[in-house]
Structures are given as structure tokens and as C-alpha cells.
Fold these 2 entries.
Entry 1:
Amino acid sequence: MANRGLIQAACVRAIKSLGAEAVALCEEADFNQVGVREASRAYVISSKKTSSPYLDVDEVLKAAVECKVDAVHPGYGFLAENTELSKKLTERGIAFIAPTRLAKGRSTSENKKFLGEIAVKAGVAVLPHSAVFENTADLAGEAKNIGYPLMVKAPAASGGRCIREARSESELKTAVESVIRQCERFGYEKSVYLEKTLTHPHVISFPVLRDKNGKSIIFPELDGSVQFRFRRLLVESPSPSLSKEARGKIMSTLPALIDGLGIVGYASVDFFITENDVYFVDVKETIQHFHGVTNLLTGVDILREQIRLHSSEPLLLQKDSIRSEGSVVAVNIDAMDPYNNFAPSPGKIERMFVPYGEGIVVQSPFVSGDTVSPNYESVLAKIMAYSGTREKAISSMESALSNFRIEGISTTLPFLRGVLKHPDFLNLKWTGMQMAYENRIQEVLENINTPEEEEQAALIAALALSTDSNASTIMASAEHGGFLWAMFKGNRKLQY
């Protein structure tokens, strides 16, 4: 298992459930993480070549050979789509649980073109887009042809990485440079393409399992429309906003699409849905952050099945046996400060209190006293709420978030509480670009506290004015509409 955090722990459990040994790779600082503790064996890695040993192809390869493993599971991110690692593992007879394109020898750039061609053949509309460019000097003309606003993406873009929006020609160069820098950082091919932006799409994904013989199962869709910086913060399944007509259209084209791609294992097929149209976006064959939502809704362990199918075993699941009643709402709690434009908030977790209750599932690699590293993604925990209806699942999630306590660092808990109360979310009007503008962030945060909590915040701020050296900053923030809870920055942060 060549990853860390939540996905490492989930993979270790899936591997062991199949009766196999799970070897967890970890750097020294991650030795006490739950995935490492639960693994059959641990192998400590380090690197002088990259910012993270998890990105070092030779280090991961060395560990795989020395441990005599049959397969490497990369999780998501890091080396999950790395062509070099795939090739070197294959040369040594080690399976790589990774996208089909790697086994077919297609680069991410070639694969992006291939995906578009297969989608069109399957009868799915695609957004106006450019070819993939390595020479970014040619992009200005393409951008004019497509029209602003548009997205600048790397072919391997995922999880908010390597994707930026350009709303005008003046923003294009900066957006391209930002994407290229991220490609370099994460070891992706340094190429980009442009894609037309839809201003109010719902972001819908269909999880799929398919075996080598072509048998496949399509699972209930996930709605990931609550995003910030193109990263999903909240997911629902099934989607409450997907019409019967749109769902039927997608379901009629999906079999031809996944068969045309020759997928083996797991895939997430992504679409943008507007009031009148359905657009194909991408196919991701690496396991996704919110795969646990499908597990909870259907009772199927997606990771376990992915590993089985990559071992050339047949798909044994039958469509009629998959549970699909009820509703799941899931959130990621991140170490970011929503009152400071979601700035990272690494540091020591002084105390963490986890909620519990019927239908509530909490997953976290952290416990009280752990330190959140500034070097990796900021997910502290994942909370999932399952109930018979969407309304009951939302109510359960509200209760869970109210009872989740983290001391020592800032988190996205307040923002998530605000989303659950927001009329657009409750009335199915929340769309994928909702949080693209800062004023919408403030709009969400302004209404999360009760009158009693606001009174407490006012008292804290008043006390701070007489004791805090930052009194002038507090007053200035108040005069410009700053949030009382955000104004008080003591030595100890408490997130509710």
C-alpha cells in the first residue's frame, strides 16, 4: 500500500479481508498512523530526490521488490497514475492496481483524446475543449475559440489538483503557470488543455465495477456539487438533483462507454448536469476520496472488489443484490481556516472528540495529540450519515458536526455546518461553481452560529480588546464586517 492517511487504512483493511498480507509503506513521521498500525508489515521509506518519499518511484519500487509483493495499490494521488512506476513494476512481474491506460501504454495526454472519442461514439455530449498542449504558448488562440470563462486542466487533474479557472485572457497565463507548477510537484506530465466552463452545473459521478470478461455493474450516482477550488467537500448519494430523464440518458450510454474504454476494476464516470443538458467530463480509474459513500449505501466494499478484479477474478455481484434504498450525506473535515479563505492550518491536535450515533460513520487517521503535517492534503476526518431519506440524513449530519470537537487547529467544521443550513443546498440549487467567489463563502459563514453563540463571541472579542496586542486589528475587522469568531485569535483554537 503505497500511500498514507485514510486511503492507506482503508486499503489495508480491504487487503486483509481477502486473506492477503498488507505491507504499508510509510515515512518515519507517519509510522504511528492507523493504516501502518493495522498492516501486516510496515516498510519505512525516505527520499532525497522528492519532497515526499511517496512520490519517489525508485523508493517505492525498491520496497515492493524487497518485500516480494504480488501487487502495489497506490490509492489516489501521488503515484496512482505514474507511467514510469507502472512500467518498472510490470517488468518485475508485480501488478499495479492502476488505470487501464497504463497497461495499454497510453499517456495521460493520449488518454484524454481517447476518452473524448469514446464518449462521442457512445452518444454523450462533451464540453468544447482544446487538444492537449505541451507548448503552452499556443493556448491563447485556442482560448479565444472556446470562449471565457474556461478551465485550464492537466490531463491527470483530480481532487482539485492541476486545475484552475481563467475568466479572461489576462488570467490565462497565471492559470497555466499554476497548473504546470502543480504537475511538476506531483510528477504528472507537464501538459494542459482548455475546457469551457459551465457556470451552474451539478457535478455527478457514477461508480462502476467491470471485470476482464466485460461484466459490469453501475452503482447509484454521487452528487459532488459542494466544492471549493474544484475539490469536493460534501457528497450525497443518490443525487437529489438528478432528474429521471437525465439519469436514464446516462444509464443508457454508460455500458457502451465503459466497454469502449476496456476498463478492468473500478472507475468513476463524471458528468456535468445542467437544466437541459448532460455533458461527459472524465473517467477516473483510481479509487476516489468518497468511495465509502457507495460502501455505506449499497453494502459493497468497493476497494475489496477493485483488488479482486485486478487479480483477474470475475465480478460475482448481481445488480438485484445491491441495496440502494435510503440516502447518504458525507463530508470531509479539513485542516483549513474558512475564515481566512481556506488557508492551511497544520499543527498539533490538542484534543479531538468524535461523534457517534445510529447511521453515523467516522473515519480518521488522527487521534488527540497527533500533528497534522503541512506537506500533505489536509483531510482530518470523513463523516458519513446514512438514513432512510435525504432530510433525515442531513439532520443526522448536522448533529454529528455539532458534536465533533477539534482543539488546536482551525478546521472546515463551521463552513460545513453553514452549507447544511443554506437554502440553496436544502432546495437543490447548489451547483459546482457556487463557491468560486469569496462573497459566497462569507454568505455561508454568516449564518452558522446561534444568537447565544454570537453573544459568546462578542464577549470574547470584547475581552480581547482589553488584553490582546491585536486590538487594533480586531476593531478594523469589526468595522469592515469581519466575523466575531474569526477576530479572536488566541493561543488555543477551538472548532465547533
Entry 2:
Amino acid sequence: MSYTWSHNIDDSTATHFSTWLTPRREQDFVNLRPDKSDSALDRRHRLTLNWVYETPWMKNSSNWAAKNLIGNWRWTTSYTYESPEYATATSGVDSNLNGDAAGDRTVVNPSGDRKKGSDVTALTNSSGATVAYLAKDPTAMYIKAGLGALAAGGRNTLPTNPTNNFDMSFAKVFNVRGENQKIEFRGDFGNIFNHPQYVPGYINSVRLNSSYTDTRDYLIPGNSRFQKWDQIFPSNARSVQLVLRYSF
């Protein structure tokens, strides 16, 4: 068993354009203070449980068939729970008019529904100049900040989904030529219960996922995919690996 509590805080994470979840560029080039927040690398809680069970029956039997056909089974399980990665709600436009739309965040309605986002309608004066913006959905927490609006929303405030995963392995061992040589046939099952886990990245791999630089519509309030993680991330379906190993 292993449990880790940690809290990672920063004002910038990625040094290169590797994801839209947390823009690498700050909202205001001359004021980094509003960008201080939970890091994209922050995983507040991580719990891992591992156990191995080896069948005791026929373990010391002198009968080769009984020992190797009835006995010599091994069951291994690993369970992992990990807090979610947080993402940044962005407006997708240059709200503060500094020439860069990458990091511009949103207006926040503190009494709104945190699962909702809203686009805005520009309000104009008699000469046609925009003087204000009206939220299309006043019940939403995240409101798109139009051109010139003050985007006071924080960085990394959108929780994605946590990891909640079971991996299992079943092995059959055959002793050959005494105890020193063994043949093992094993099945490894990642996410054995095929529980959909729509999380950024992968639960059983460390390979790079470059798909999060393609679009960021799901981070922009008012978009139909806003915070719809099951429409963005892979489900990390069950994986199966068969192994045959000879030990000597």
C-alpha cells in the first residue's frame, strides 16, 4: 500500500506548446500573480494497493502432475486512485487586447453552476460600439470574456476525471527439472473491469499523447463540448497481454 498527499503550485508549467489544458503562456505578460494556482502537475491524492496471492495447495507435493496442474497459480492485483488533473477555462479570444489569445481566461459568476459555461452577446451604444457583454446563460459559472472584458477567472479551476483503476494478472507456473527452471504462462489485464476512465493521457502507459494541442473548444464557455470529458478523452478500455516466460 502506498498513499501520497501533495500540493503542487506554480504560475507556469509547460515550457513548450504541449497542451491546451493549461496554456503555457500567461494571460498578462507583465503580471504573473493571477497565474499562480494549482499546477497542471498537481495530483493531490494518490493511493496504490498491490497484493499477490499464490495458491497454497499441492505446493510441497511430490506428485509433479498434482503440483503443477492443480497448484502453482498466482493472482496479482493493483488498484490505483489518483486525483484529477485540472484544466483552465479560456475564452479563445484576446480578451485583454495584448495581442495574444492563448492564455486569456474567463469571467466567473461565483453563484453559477460550475459545470456550465456561457457565451456572451455584445451590447452596443447608438454608434454601434460595444460597451458591455450579456451572458447568454446567467446560471453558468464560466462566462466567455469578450474583447476588452476583464477576465478575472483563475487558472486550472476545471477538474477533469480522477483515475480509478484495477489491473489484474493471472499466472500458471510449471516447474521443470526441479525447482530451478520454470515455465510461466500469464495473462495481464489493464483496466480489467473495462471501467470507462475519460482522463487526460493514459492509465497504463507513459507514451506521449499529442492530441491535446489540436483544439480547445471544450475549454471555451458556450461551446457544446465544454467540460464534456467523455467526448474529449479516450476511455482507456481494457487491454490484454499474454506472456510466456521461461526462467532458468
